[in-house]
Specification:
Radius of gyration: 28 Å
Keywords: Disulfide bond, Electron transport, Redox-active center, Transport
Family: Belongs to the glutaredoxin family. CPYC subfamily.
Oligomer: single chain
GO molecular function: glutathione disulfide oxidoreductase activity
Distance between the termini: 87 Å
Number of helices: 6
Function: Has a glutathione-disulfide oxidoreductase activity in the presence of NADPH and glutathione reductase. Reduces low molecular weight disulfides and proteins.
Strand content: 5-15%
InterPro entries: GLR_AS, Glutaredoxin, Glutaredoxin_euk/vir, Glutaredoxin_subgr, Thioredoxin-like_sf
Order of helices and strands: HHEHEHEEHH
């Protein structure tokens, strides 16, 4: 006895419509594209963890100039955020206050670790901590 499978084109069409409907539902209920956060907090975290050396500074600050000079003498190129030249600089300082307990500048980070200000940087250079963090010892 010979068995045959009958082919019904209308079943195939129904499956296609069903598949299209499922795809449409998935597209409608799929999560929307997530845009990168533009919050000051996200910006600060990104700067700290995306750069070997990050300095939150003000262009006119003598302590900030001293910190920049120290890195220049060490032949290191920090990523510098000049807060006084940004519209959201005060918001970034608020984030720094929450993060490290200070609003003052400069605030220096090396490989994600908070060093402190210019005086703290000088101490870190003298006792070799900075060189250890930079891997130059």
């Amino acid at each position: 006895m010979k068995t045959t499978t009958s082919y019904r084109p209308d079943n195939r069409c129904k499956l296609g419509v069903l598949a299209f409907g499922i795809m449409l539902l998935l597209m409608i209920h799929a999560p929307k594209k997530v845009s990168a956060s533009k919050s000051p907090s996200a910006f600060v975290q990104n700067v700290i963890y995306s750069n070997k050396i990050a300095i939150f500074s003000k262009s006119y600050c003598p302590y900030c100039r001293r910190a920049k000079r120290i890195f220049s003498e060490l032949k290191e190129q920090p990523y510098i955020v000049e807060l006084d030249l940004r519209d959201d600089g005060y918001k970034i300082q608020d984030v720094l206050l929450d993060l490290v307990g200070r609003r003052t500048v400069p605030q220096i980070f090396v490989n994600g670790k908070h060093i402190g200000g210019a005086d703290d940087l000088e101490v870190a250079v003298r006792n070799g901590v900075l060189q250890d963090l930079l891997g130059t010892k």
